[in-house]
Design brief:
The protein is of the alpha+beta class and 160 residues long. The chain contains three helices and ten strands. The chain binds calcium ion (2 copies).
Length: 160
């Protein structure tokens, strides 16, 4: 009983007293536990995923939520007028978008209105500059720039 109480106190302190930050290799951008590489080179979806695998064993970006999406869009705006592959495909079932790295069905998406539906020759997704980087479905063999994500190195720092 006493041990349980001690554990609770320690856990509360851990979440309150320690902050975590992410470190990445040179050229990679850290954010919330991940590292991102914006690689400017006109590349097909498959070649883009291969490029990521060869660099830090990363994968095409997997965007989990609005916070990650918004962070990435800020960066895309700075890099101006480029399309970026994201690791999302609907190759198995039309209109059912799955993340390429773990085959999970996407719960958060940011498709431009009219995109992301059942278009059977457009099975890959890119962020589109003309719609402020909302997502559009395109033919996987078109060539756009590459956005890779890998797990960052987490460091803890104790506050106070
Ligand atoms: Ca992610
Ligand atoms: Ca499709």
């Amino acid at each position: 009983m006493w041990n349980n109480r001690v554990c609770i106190a320690v856990c509360v302190c851990l979440s309150g007293c320690v902050s975590y930050y992410t470190t990445c290799k040179d050229g990679w951008l850290p954010f919330r536990g991940s590292c991102y590489l914006f690689h400017v080179e006109a590349t097909t979806f498959t070649a883009a995923e291969q490029y990521c695998r060869q660099h830090e064993n990363s994968h095409l970006v997997h965007i989990d939520d609005a916070i990650e999406n918004s962070f990435l869009k800020d960066r895309m705006r700075l890099l101006k007028d480029r399309y970026w592959w994201i690791g999302l495909r609907d190759e198995d079932i039309e209109g059912v978008w799955k993340w390429f790295d773990n085959d999970e069905i996407a719960t958060f998406t940011d498709f431009k209105p009219g995109d992301g539906g059942p278009h059977d020759i457009e099975d890959c997704a890119t962020a589109e500059p003309g719609s402020d980087y909302r997502w559009v479905d395109v033919d996987c063999s078109v060539t756009v720039d590459v956005l890779c994500e890998t797990r960052g190195h987490e460091e803890a720092s104790v506050i106070g």
